[in-house]
Amino acid sequence: MFDNFESTRIPVDDATIHVRYGGSGPAVVLLHGHPRTSATWHRVAPRLVERGYTVVCPDLRGYGRSRGPAPTDDHAGYSKRVVANDIVAVLDSLGHRRFALAGHDRGSYVAFRLALDHPAAVSRVALLDCLPISEHLSRITAEFATRWWHWFFFAQPGIPERVINADPDSWYQGDPRAMGQENYDEWRAAMRNPEVVRAMLEDYRAGVTVDAEHERADRAAGNRLTCPTLILWSLRDDLEDLYGDPVRIWRDWADDVRGHGIDSGHHMAEEAPEALADSLHEFFRPTL
Questions:
Q1: What phi, psi does 133 have (nearest 5°)?
Q2: What is the pLDDT of residue 8?
Q3: What is the domain-level CATH number for residue 125?
Q4: Kind of pairing, strands 122-128 and 99-104?
Q5: Catalytic residues
Q6: Predicted confidence (pLDDT) per residue in 143-197, tens digit
């Protein structure tokens, strides 16, 4: 994986972020989702390097080989605002004050928060399989609660740690043939680390509390994404089934938004890397 990429660990405030980076040209940051690590991008990142970008793939705070602080009752240490600040600090350490940005799943919430809080740093943002957390919570139906029940299970105190750590291989099932062996091995090692499991759950606990509050405050203040925004979603996942065209919802949050579906299951970076890389390049091309 990641031939000709470098990797390092960068201290930022109360966390240490593991990051892979390679290539030359304008910076593109790729943020993974749950329960993956930055290795999920191993089929996409080299394709973007070949097209003339510097590609930066961090492990989010607490995920993979990154580490964060002990959890607190308000979950603020794992809020998307704090994790977005990590990414800005990492890119600054690597010499990039401005960059294009893509996030998938939980990483998309970090990308969304980063583009809202640091508009001068983000030239363009792509949000994959994503609606604002507050939009999900305001639209809860029995169907949503049944399909996305894990949001509310992960938010419970203590219980999900005990369940997941009792048998992480059964809980988080992966396919090394579909994921790629090295990606699978890295992911599986992380899933068997109780410290990583705890941090991933804190991500969800922050999501339905402090992160949702931040989004509602943005909405009340009229804060919007001002950079060009691309919305991509997996056609064989359920986002469009639940809500119809996600772009329609994002028009309430972004000034310049466009998007389309990708013929893939949820983990599009692993399942449809060529189509995803093509879509990202077409969108990021004006930064070259």
A1: -55, -40
A2: 98
A3: 3.40.50.1820
A4: parallel
A5: 105, 266
A6: 999 999 999 999 999 999 999 999 999 999 999 999 999 999 999 999 999 999 9
Look up residue 147 and give its two tokens: 């399909």
Q: Encode pLDDT of 103-154 as tens digits.
A: 999 999 999 999 999 999 999 999 999 999 999 999 999 999 999 999 999 9
Q: What one-letter code names the amino acid at 274? A: E
Close Cβ partners of 188 (under 8 Å, ≥ 6 residues apart): 169, 172, 174
Residue pair 3/265 in contact by the 8 Å Cβ criterion: no
Tell me, what amino acid is at 142? Answer: A
Say if residue 177 is exposed, middle or buried (CB neighbours under 10 Å; 0-12, 13-18, 19+): exposed
Q: Which residues in the chain belong to E strands, given as ranges? A: 6-12, 15-23, 27-31, 54-58, 99-104, 122-128, 229-234, 257-262
pTM (predicted TM-score): 0.98
Query: Residue 122: helix, strand or coil by DSSP?
Result: strand
What tokens does 199 get?
């941090």
The structural domain count of the chain equals 1
Tell me whether residue 215 is in a domain: yes
Mean pLDDT of the chain: 97
CB atoms within 10 A of CB 37: 25
